[in-house]
Amino acid sequence: MLYIGCHLSSSKGNVEMVKTARKIGANTFAFFTRNPRGSKAKPVDLLDCEKAMDLLKELEFGTLVAHGSYTMNLCTADPEARHFASDVLKEDLERMAALPGQYYNFHPGSHVGQGIEAGIDQIAGALKRALEPGYPVTVLLETMAGKGSEVGGRFEELKQIIDAVGSNQVGVCLDTCHVWDGGYDIVHDLDGVLAEFDRVVGLERLKALHLNDSKNPMASHKDRHECIGQGYLGKETFEAIVNHPLLRDKPMILETPNELPGYAAEIALLRGLMKE
Ligand code: FE
Ligand code: FE
Ligand code: ZN
């Protein structure tokens, strides 16, 4: 079963997102847990969450992949701002408990000159503080393009965070644009990259994918998403991904430059690439 979807607006609640997803041919989706710019989150609507959970089950959706705010930087240099980011993560994970069993993905952070080791320590510290044992949520670290001082551009860095947290509620979300921009050649050697992921992190930690083509060549460290098949990755790479035995059952989220009709078309395109 291919579970594919895109980012949806959460402004009308969870039930509306499930309905919208259904309309565009999606059977999973992503949403920001709060306004990507601001920090204030709406109170959790428990009834809406419960209804959404029933609907997800009824429609046989795959696991959802919520996305933490882009502005949440767990390894920013200012201690006060860092503590605030850590509070945001803690609150987000509490909120996710109202949608049990779903994933919460986030960008590990940018160390802004503190150095990669300090960044890893601070990210792991925030996760340890936020991730109460027993919360019904798996936290996913997103693979990054290695732009600026981003942490998570190398599989080794994700592994260090995972080890430092020491919880099996931590996994990885592989972003195809980011790994390519980070220097992993998924165009010519997808199997090799997955073997490398397995060697360094372990494939059991790979829980979800972000499907994005890239506007830039490999190892550019740029992080500029392109529509599927229109960038350096090309349609063949996505054909290989949706048919790959190690990947095809994971939730796949599009973050391409599209509105809903464009997403619907890309979902149909990707489903059409499946070989059965
Ligand atoms: Fe992301
Ligand atoms: Fe992404
Ligand atoms: Zn990106």
Folded structure, characterized:
- The chain has 276 residues and is of the alpha/beta class.
- Helix content is 39%, strand content 14%.
- The protein has nine helices and eleven strands.
- The protein has helices at residues 14-23, 46-58, 79-96, 116-130, 155-165, 176-182, 190-200, 234-243, 260-272, and strands spanning 4-6, 65-67, 103-106, 109-110, 138-142, 150-151, 170-175, 206-211, 213-214, 225-226, 252-254.
- The strands form three sheets. It has a seven-stranded parallel β-sheet. A two-stranded antiparallel sheet has the order 4-6.
- Helix 3 (79-96) crosses helix 4 (116-130) and helix 4 (116-130) packs across helix 5 (155-165).
- The structure holds fe (iii) ion (2 copies) and zinc ion.
- One fe (iii) ion binds at residues 67, 107, 142.
Oligomer: single chain
Widest sheet, order of strands:
1-11-8-7-5-3-2
Helix count equals 9
Shape: globular
Question: What is this structure's SSE topology?
Answer:
Elements: E1 4-6, H1 14-23, H2 46-58, E2 65-67, H3 79-96, E3 103-106, E4 109-110, H4 116-130, E5 138-142, E6 150-151, H5 155-165, E7 170-175, H6 176-182, H7 190-200, E8 206-211, E9 213-214, E10 225-226, H8 234-243, E11 252-254, H9 260-272
Parallel strand pairs: 1-11, 2-3, 3-5, 5-7, 7-8, 8-11
Antiparallel strand pairs: 4-6, 9-10
Helix pairs in contact: 1-2, 3-4, 4-5
The structure holds fe (iii) ion (2 copies) and zinc ion.
One fe (iii) ion is lined by residues 67, 107, 142.
